[in-house]
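Deliverable D5.2: sample structural annotation.
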Amino acid sequence: MTMNQPRRGNGLEGAPRKAQPSDALVLFGATGDLAHKMVLPALYELARQHALDVPVIGVAFDRFTTARLRQFAADGVRRSGRKIDRVALRRLQSALQFVRGDYQDAATFRALRQALRGARHPAYYLAIPPALFATVLRGLGDAGLADRARVIVEKPFGRDLASAQELNRVALSVFPEDAIFRIDHFLAKEAIMNILYFRFANSFLEPVWNRNHVASVQITLAEDFGVKGRGAFYESAGCLRDVVQNHMFQIVALLAMEPPVRRGFGAVHRETCEVFQAMRPLEPADLVRGQYRGYRREPGVARGSDVETYCALRLFIDSWRWQGVPWYLRSGKCLATTATEVLVRFKAPPQRLFEDSAPPAGQTNYLRFRLSPNSAIALAARVKRVGKAFVGDQRELCLIDAQASRSPPYARLIGDALAGNGALFTREDAVEEAWRVVDPVLERHPRALPYSPGSWGPRAAAALIAADGPWHNPEVQDVAAD
């Protein structure tokens, strides 16, 4: 059977035909915050689904024991707010083992080899600071632990184009590309996957999904909270690196990509990478940076910090489909609400038959995707009011998905990685192309402008979008009510 032939299945097919499931999972950074809040609760979810049937070996420098790691895992699951299935929790705990050691010490990897007990296809999860990625990758290679194995790497994958290229070089010197799983949990969210499905499972969208009919695209990823004690991390990242270059660019790619020529995640990866390749590199004039008042008082933040907690940018995709269409992206902390929405604004009718039906008197049609905190798709159209006058109102036809996702993003991604399914992971070329777009403004940019917590960011962001705006603000009461 070739990839072009019909095949059964209800999702993107794509795991390599001869992919061997992993027979062990090694969690580097097992005692860290990421493991406690995300990875261990995700492993519990897999255990609850009877989808975790391999040993899990935690590795860290902290003075833990296997017993303490099992307690640590139970505490992480309880704090995640999940309803506790005691049988599933015991199943996870019984799978856990602990190896203590320094990642720069070859003895750590020798101890790991003994703990693996002959596992032939282990998967290594690097839930560690990015500065240690290369150290662990080289340690695995030098110890001969990379053969027939996989590695799962957390974002951020590099800090800029040069560091991403160097990290890719190190990773590819130890593992083949199809064994490197660059994780971005955003891609496993149900609403994000629905963008891909909605675009290509429906035929009505394709004729208007181009520069001839789309006037502009807005994407907002807003959070109503601050850095939550992670000031030291944010000082090293900022909003552009932490959210825009990965999460938001992935949304852009799914919206802007060409139809894959065949079914399979390899074809989807190629099309998303071509979107990144067509993106015009950013310039300082395309960018507004902001910092919420009070950020400099956060622990770990420099007194005179210029790190952005808010970022708005104008992006162009120089492709046949999207040439000349502006894409506006913004994200920030301490904004008016927590929500992620996409607004695709269509051009006005070519002839103004009714006084109120075209800008500036009227509003244009748009398609709105809400991605969080819940999932919704809405189409805005003008409808005539009752009476003799040809006057109308903008109305939305809205479909809200009330179903909660059965599996948290991290659980799905870890399960896919253990199975060898790379559909929801990013490739080397896509990572580097995304960095190429933002690289010119990582160091050469306007200063961060102050904004008040609870607002929609600095006023300068309105000027950025003025020619195609205003910004669409997800409504606080609408988000809360759904």
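Annotation notes: The two ends are 44 Å apart (CA to CA). The first helix runs from residue 33 to 48.
The annotation will be released with the project's public dataset once the embargo ends.
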